[in-house]
Amino acid sequence: MSDDLDALKSRTEADLAAATDLRAWDAVRVAVLGKSGSLTALLKELGKVAPEERRERGAALNRLKDSLNAAIEARRTALETAALEARLAAERMDVTLPPRPHPAGLIHPISRTIEEMAAIFGAMGFEVAEGPDVESDWHNFGALNIPAHHPARADHDTFYLPPVAGQSMPPVLRTHTSPVQVRTMLERSLPFRVVVPGRTYRADHDATHSPMFHQIEGLALGRDITLGHLKGCLIDFLRTFFGISTLPVRFRSSYFPFTEPSMEVDIGWNRKTGELGGGGDWLEILGSGMVHPKVLANAGIDPREWQGFAFGMGVERVTMLKHGIPDLRPFYESDIRWLRHYGFNPLAPAMLHEGV
Amino acid sequence: MKFPLSWLRDHLDTSASLPEITDALTRIGLELEGVQDRGAALAAFRIAHVVAAAQHPNADRLRACKVDTGDGALVSVVCGAPNARTGMKAVFAPPGAYIPGTGITLKIGEIRGVQSAGMLLSAREMGLGDDHDGILDLPPDAPVGTPYVVWAGLDDPVIDIAVTPNRGDALSVRGVARDLAAAGIGTLKPWAPPPVPAIFPSPLHWSVIDDKTCPWVLGRTVRNVRNGPSPKWLSDRLTAIGLRPINALVDVTNFFTFDLGRPLHVFDADKVSGPLLTLRPGAGETFRALNGKDYTVTPDDCAIADAAGVQSLAGVMGGAATGCDETTTSVFIECALFDPIRVALTGRRHQIASDARQRFERGIDPALLPDGLEAATRMVIDLCGGEASEIVAAGSEPGWQRAATLRFGRLAGLGGLDVPADEAVASLERLGFSVVSRDATRVTVNVPSWRNDIAARTDLDFAPGLDAEKAEAAAAGRAAIEPEADLVEEVLRLKGLDNVPPVSMTVPGPVPLPTLSPRQTRTVLARRTLAAQGLAECVTFSFMADKDAALFGSPDPALRLVNPIVADLDQLRPTPVATLAQAAKRNAARGFADVSLFEVGPAFRGVAPETQPIVAAGIRAGATPRNWLAPTRPVDALDAKADAFAVLSALGVPMEALTITTDAPGFYHPGQSGVVRQGPKTALATFGALHPNVLAGLNAAVPMVAFEVFLDAIPDPKRRRKSVPDLPAFMPVRRDFAFVVDRAVTAEAVLKAARGAERQLIASVALFDAYEGDKIDAGKKSLAVEVMFQPRERTLTDAEIEAACAKVASAVEKATGGRLR
């Protein structure tokens, strides 16, 4: 290669190295390859070269052109890469910064427990039924074989509302969810199985009693439902709900005006540690029994044809046991710190196939 | 009910241990409440003889004693009690014993050079009193080596059981013994008091006005008695069950109340203005009862009156004026049968909870009156001397006899346990039932007099308006089934319910049907939606203070509790917003003012079921969270609107058809609240900022916004297949418009007009800016909307777009009086 071509090559390479941005790089490219570029000029002058030298000169010029093109492209890639890197470096942010707030809400433990109960009893063929909080005396007491003089009334600490014209007894705040048993018997066709979660009220206020609390009632009526089914249903429920397949369950004879035979149900636990299951102590957890013939008859059901069981349990009580919540009163205080601690994720509802 | 073990053994012959007895009680429905065993902690202490008590060689105030504990060898004990003396009998605690009064476990020690291998105890050190003048100084005949608790009669545990309201018969030691015997814990001892001979005619007689109130009453005078303190065995028993011994005559009545469940009353016969004691309705007289309080008897009460007036409230409490005291020399014993319902109502009316009432209202043994009176007379004469009159009576033993039939198959058919017929019959016989007839399938038994809960003839209480034919069949069914159910319960109770094999519920198919109704599912979904919106679910009380409820509307007197537990929980809440606002306030008081709370619960508008709607309500208080990217701002009405809309949308309400009116309830800020309506009538929700007066009434320092969604008002969801989706193939075109309108013009008016300008072409209209300020005229505002045109057949030409835009502009200008900016 002749000296002038060598010079052009080394000069261009030096210029490219000196170009530190794309604008300078483009100036070098135009100065070499542009219309009035130095290489373009040499190519134009090829015709003036003596014919015997032209072939060799042409080949040399083409080699130079390829080489300069490659050098120019390489430089552009390098400059672009550097520019991107510089931009990325400049755009670096503090990713430890907190994101935009999206406060999470939550589900109250009472609602959660009721959902779990509905899921478990639902799998046993129960439907959920509901009734009003303010009830008639008949629904809350009379229909359930608790007449006005009954000693059991004294245990109920009933809240009364002012008398209503045309009604012999004043309305009450329901003292249990059992009045919905009566409503269900009057409204549904037999056989049926229902569970009834809801608010209940008793005039009792101390560390372990709240004037408002929640119960869940169960009622299963059919032709041949026995006390054995009642036991099976409750054992199945309690073991699933508490997640202890070997939970000891004990049944004791007792009395409720609306069932006969009646039983109290205890579960095994350790009184000292509060742990459920073993421990050798018993904890009373719910009342139950076969529906009293008078209750069926009061609702117009012939007890010779239909029989079944009923049970009732405190929602807060089993919630406290299941989650180790020590105190009843905060359930109703709406302390946001307590709610955040014991509340449940709304997007993870109780579903049997996900495990309750 | 409480009773010491020794009392139970008066009636029950048993070798069962205390735990066997208490386990059986719980199993058969006489639930154990507790055992108080005062002797257990003192079991190690023995009676000892202080052979020598000499001055301690190295301590002025101590004595070095040699003690004979009954083991033969003398024990050296250093004692600080001033009354320790040679020859006395004392209570000795050996090394290793725990001293309840001091909480110390004894060790062998050396006190100033003298060994002390035990301790002589004071009453206080044993936890038996406060007396600390010195060690217990026992009588000289106290037997050395005998456990102190045995000698002192403290080794008698007191059993406490809960008796259910149906078991009046178990409110007696004998009744408990009978049940235990039937359950296989020993045998019931026979009891038949021999009659006390009648020496003279009774100076007092009965007269009964209403034999329904008092079917039968007996009485007897015992004259020449000497009343005074009861003997130790009787006062010990009464003390053990928590009763205060009064005097022998009164204590006898209390004894039989608990021993036989047979309440009695004693009149001082000399204080009664005889000769007639009349059982009659009260007539407004006031008398002083034995508890020292004055009661005014009503015509609904049964009073016992003499010539001077009312002296006793029958079956509930006697009177002070005719009561027995130390001066009594002639006593008239009352042994009666009263109507349980009247006693219950009288007791409740006058708020008297007496042991007599407790038994009468549960029903007492109607056949026990003669024997009860004989036994009481005998004990009066045994304790106080004297001689008995003839028995005077009014009325007669009522016909209590009833039979009940058990079909053996029902033990399994109802009770789930196939108890052999012989075993079932034997159980009933042990309980006192007697067989009338029996064949292979059934047994008919007579009910014992004390079990008024079995085959009881009580009234039904039919549903109002129940069909007569149904009622008749139900009543017949009940008459046939109830006595049998009573017997099934008795057999299973004694057999033990733990023996009934559990049977899992069978379901119609492997896949359960829905448990919740569509409406219930909606409630659950509303709850989840609000929690997902960032609100924390609360459960607040249904009642609140009347004055706080008043902030949310004039409180309805029909919804004020007659007997609130505390004054600030007396009014049923008109809306859950009311109690949630208080919850937000409480959180602010704890330093957490910025809270978002919700509740799905009842609002109370009346007492009828349909006036207690379920409302999903919420409160947002304070400000949005502080964050470096999103500046904090006070919560506003539109935050509450967003929450309400989230629920409505989640529940499938067609949102584009909703309208907002500005007639929200008065607890909202009138200019910053709205009612969400579907059609002109149906209000689905309310939202807004709370009224400044409400915030002031709550003493709230931060703003609060609230919403209510009336779940019951939302039409039932329709289960319909979805239509084919609208997915046009052509690009939509978006154009922005800004309208200057009067300040009073609503955004809804602008959006509605724009949407209606070209229904086929306009797919959506969205407000993206609202401006009021100095760049436009005062009293005006600028509302900017983005309109999306969606062509369906071909791409729109510029001219078509222009024409559509012009339609939008003119439609909005026409509807709102505004102009394009």
Task: Write up what this structure looks like.
The complex is a heterodimer of chains A (356) and B (821). Chain A has 356 residues and is of the alpha+beta class. Helices cover 41% and strands 18% of the residues of chain A. Chain A folds into two domains: 3-90; 109-342, BirA Bifunctional Protein, domain 2 (2-Layer Sandwich). In chain A, strands 1-4-5-9-8-7-6 form a seven-stranded mixed sheet, sandwiched between helices. In chain A, strands 2-3 form a two-stranded antiparallel sheet. In chain A, strand 6 and strand 7 (259-269) form a beta hairpin. Chain A starts with a helix and ends in a 14-residue tail after the last helix. Chain B is 26% helix and 26% strand. In chain B, a hairpin with a 3-residue loop joins strand 22 and strand 23 (317-318). The longest helix of chain B has 28 residues, at 468-495. At the A-B interface, helix 5, strand 1, helix 7, strand 4 and strand 5 of A face helix 7, helix 12, helix 13, strand 29 and helix 15 of B.
Number of strands of chain A: 9
Which segments of chain A are poorly predicted (pLDDT under 50) over 5 or more consecutive residues? none
Largest sheet features of chain A: 7 strands, mixed
Mean pLDDT of chain A: 93
Task: Calculate the mean pLDDT score of chain B and round it.
Answer: 93
Q: Cα-atom Rg of chain A, whole angstroms?
A: 43 Å
The helix content of chain A is: 40-55%
The total number of structural domains of chain A is 2
SSE string of chain A = HHHHHEEHHEHEEHEEEHEHH
Q: Unreliable runs of chain B, pLDDT <50, ≥5 residues? A: none
Please indicate the percent range of residues of chain B in DSSP E strands (runs of 2 or more). 25-35%
As an assembly, this protein is heterodimer
User: Which range best describes the helical content of chain B: under 10%, 10-25%, 25-40%, 40-55%, 55-70% or over 70%?
Assistant: 25-40%
Adjacency order of strands in the biggest sheet of chain A: 1-4-5-9-8-7-6
Task: Say what the CATH topology of the largest domain in chain A is.
Answer: BirA Bifunctional Protein, domain 2
